[in-house]
Design goal:
Layout lengths: L2 E5 L6 E6 L6 H5 L7 E6 H17 L4 E6 L8 H14 L6 E6 L1 H13 L5 E6 L2 H7 L4 E6 L2 E8 L4 E5 L8 H18 L1 H15 L3 H21 L14 H10 L8 H18 L5 H14 L15 H9 L11 E6 L2 E5 L4 H9 L1
Parallel strand pairs: 2-9, 3-4, 3-5, 5-6, 6-9
Antiparallel strand pairs: 1-2, 7-8, 10-11
The chain binds glycine.
The site of glycine has 6 residues, from loops.
């Protein structure tokens, strides 16, 4: 059931290991990269669930560990959180030739990757993602960042990990809503570039989400393989990597319009955003209506939201959502950026969408 996926980036190449129960083998996987003391950074919640197990697996291989536990939540991914982590890393005694382990979801992974990129001008790090979203997206590809007052993920750098260890059995401890939100990113891979994978998900997605290890491992590994291939061809997002943002222009704007609150998780925004991106593609004559209906039907069938009306609370105003899109970090000269589709598995990047078309869709 175990899969190893290479990310081919020359001297920055690394492997993604995907399997249930992999945490028990973390020591052996990490050993070739470890030297001196290895800080293991996590958050309170993940520490309660998985930290001792990981530390034991590392100590079993005689790796000297130094746990660092951060407060759980998005506010840790800030300048203040970065400063605290950098101090703790320096105090841990990790040296330039050493490495750091990030155990957690996207917040921990993004923050640790950034800190690893700047402490002592760059230290290696290993990603041990514990959420579905982190296993299929944020732990792979080397994007690291913190949030600032002006927006999310606006300060960061590209710093590839040395290794990604995705233990799919850890996903069983996730709340159902968070697991589903991560699944939106899995479905995204089929929608943006692999019609066969999307059909497979239509048949097996529910089994993966219901705790079937083999199916979930296949879904995570396939998603990682697609991301690894895209990143290998376009590490710095000069072109193709932008396709990974399918559903994100609408999704980010909806997250912003709902105040980044519990009303809408990132993956839920992506699910609604993907549905809207396919609907927009149909309206603009790029895509056939049955494809858009299949996207909506599958996301709905697993229990993800597919329309703005499903967001609890007051409906976000279309003009405010559009204003957030205009401020998206990918927008240029006031022109909106979208990933649209020709069919399931065939997407393209465009700046040629009028604001009127978007407003009409949002109002519909
Ligand atoms: N999450 C999108 C990317 O890594 O490019």
């Amino acid at each position: 059931m175990s899969k190893t996926i290479p990310v081919a980036l020359g001297e920055r190449s690394y492997n993604i290991h995907v399997a249930p129960g992999l945490l028990a083998h973390a020591g052996a996987l990490v050993k070739p990269f470890a030297s001196g003391v290895v800080p293991v950074v996590t958050d309170d919640e993940v520490a309660r669930l998985h930290l001792q197990f990981l530390l034991a697996a590392l100590r079993h291989e005689k790796i000297e560990v130094q746990p660092i536990t951060l407060p759980t939540g998005e506010s840790t991914k800030s300048f203040a959180g970065l400063e605290r982590l950098v101090s703790a890393l320096i105090a841990s005694g990790v040296d330039r030739g050493g490495m750091i382990i990030a155990l957690g979801g996207g917040v921990v992974g993004d923050l640790v990757g950034f800190a690893a990129g700047i402490v002592k001008r760059g230290i290696d790090y290993v990603q041990v993602p514990t959420t579905l979203l982190a296993q299929v997206d944020s732990s792979v590809g080397g994007k690291t960042a913190i949030n600032v007052a002006e927006g999310k993920n606006l300060v960061g750098l590209f710093h590839q990990p040395k290794l990604v260890i995705a233990d799919t059995a850890l996903l069983k401890s996730l709340p159902k809503r968070q697991l589903l939100a991560g699944y939106a990113e899995v479905a995204k891979y089929g929608a943006l570039g692999d019609a066969e994978f999307f059909s497979w998900l239509e048949q097996h997605g529910n089994a993966a989400l219901s705790g079937d290890d083999a199916t979930m491992t296949s879904a995570v590994a396939h998603s990682c393989r697609m991301k690894a291939d895209i990143v290998a061809r376009d590490e710095r997002e000069g072109g193709e990597r932008a396709l990974l943002n399918l559903g994100h222009t609408f999704g980010h704007a909806l997250e912003a319009a709902t105040g980044y609150s519990d009303r809408l998780l990132h993956g839920e925004g992506v699910s609604i955003g993907m549905t809207l991106a396919f609907e927009l593609s149909v309206r603009l004559g790029h895509c056939d209506a049955p494809s858009a209906r299949r996207i909506r039907a599958h996301l709905e069938s697993v229990g993800l939201p597919v329309s703005i009306a499903q967001i609890p609370g007051e409906r976000p105003d279309a003009k405010i959502v559009l204003a957030h899109m205009e401020h998206d970090k990918k927008a240029r000269n006031g022109r909106l950026t979208f990933v649209l589709a020709r069919q399931i598995g065939e997407s393209f990047f465009t700046r040629d969408v009028s604001k009127q078309a978007v407003l009409e869709l949002l109002a519909a």
